[in-house]
Design goal:
By secondary structure, the protein is α/β, with parallel strands linked by helices. It has one domain: TIM Barrel (Alpha-Beta Barrel), CATH 3.20.20.140. Strands 1-2-3-4-5-6-7-8 form an eight-stranded parallel sheet, with helices on both faces. Strand 5, helix 8 and strand 6 form a beta-alpha-beta unit. Helix 9 packs parallel to helix 10. The longest helix is centred in the C-terminal third of the chain and has 18 residues. The chain is globular, with a radius of gyration of 17 Å. It starts with 5 loop residues before the first helix and ends in a 10-residue tail after the last helix. It binds zinc ion. The site of zinc ion has 3 residues, from loops. The site of zinc ion (ZN) has 3 residues, from loops.
Length: 275
């Protein structure tokens, strides 16, 4: 069967769509140990974004995932230099509680950041552990957004644990990075049942049929586009959304509208050349 999507047709022809300025809610930046990235500078990333019509990307620096003190300022520089294309997540590491406390207190002074980033599976601290308490309390108080790495059946950030956090901190907007990869039904259920929990699609694309299940189960208004760039380039994920058996309305929600709403609530100006 031919894909009847007008949006897909436009992407096939031009590689991007003027009516669909994509927002990538899960990016990184800079080099990472053990792998070579051909395009990990801000300028190289922007060239790739331009090819696919990605208007803005929200990133946490790779360095910040390991060494927050060095990495968060590095990300701040990128946002300051290219405020129209980059926003950032403020990475926190619960293995250094004293440092984390300082960094939470310093957060309100930071420009260009739209929330926190947690990487519990890598930091080996469960999202429900007391060490995350101060960050979650702060996020609840300030109605913040947090991009959490989530993975199916993980003892650190599996969907069941995300549900506990969502229950305890209902004002926190939780982006389930990788959509609880593999434990799809449970993740979809959490996004369906908790108004501020979203499914973020990085890596989930290649599980055939999962985008359709998410749209049916949680709704396209609870789904967000992301790539893990510079690990991956955006066209693959875009293609998966374009070829899924969903409507163009769903595609617009996933590729940019939901992200626009979340970012506008956090003071990001997206008024010019709006699609
Ligand atoms: Zn990531």
């Amino acid at each position: 069967m031919r894909n009847p999507s007008a949006l897909a047709k436009e992407f096939r022809k031009y590689g991007k769509a003027a009516s669909c300025p994509i927002i990538d809610m899960h990016g990184h930046f800079g080099p990472y140990q053990g792998i070579y990235f051909p395009a990990d500078t801000a300028e190289a990333m922007m060239r790739i974004m331009d090819r696919a019509g990605v208007r803005m990307i929200v990133c946490s620096s790779h360095t910040a995932l390991v060494d927050t003190r060095r990495g968060n300022p590095e990300m701040a520089e990128v946002v300051a230099k290219y405020p129209d294309r980059f926003r950032a997540y403020w990475a926190l590491n619960p293995n250094y509680p004293d440092r984390m406390k300082e960094e939470i207190e310093a957060y309100p002074e930071q420009k260009g950041f739209v929330g926190f980033k947690f990487l519990s599976d890598y930091h080996k601290v469960a999202i429900t552990d007391d060490r995350y308490g101060p960050a979650l309390e702060f996020a609840q108080e300030h109605r913040m957004m947090i991009l959490m790495h989530t993975w199916g059946n993980s003892p650190y950030d599996g969907p069941a644990l995300i549900e506990e956090v969502a229950k305890r901190y209902p004002e926190v907007t939780i982006l389930m990075g990788h959509s609880g990869y593999g434990e799809w039904d449970r993740a979809i259920g959490v996004a369906r049942d908790y108004p501020k929990v979203y499914l973020e699609l990085t890596a989930a694309y290649h599980a055939n049929g999962v985008i359709e299940e998410m749209v049916q189960g949680a709704g396209s208004h609870k789904m967000l586009f992301g790539t893990d760039m510079p690990w991956f380039t955006p066209h693959y994920g875009i293609g998966c959304v374009l070829c899924a058996a969903i409507t163009d309305e769903d595609r617009h929600n996933i590729l940019h509208r939901n992200a626009e709403t979340l970012l506008r609530l956090r003071g990001v100006n997206l008024e010019e050349d709006d699609g």
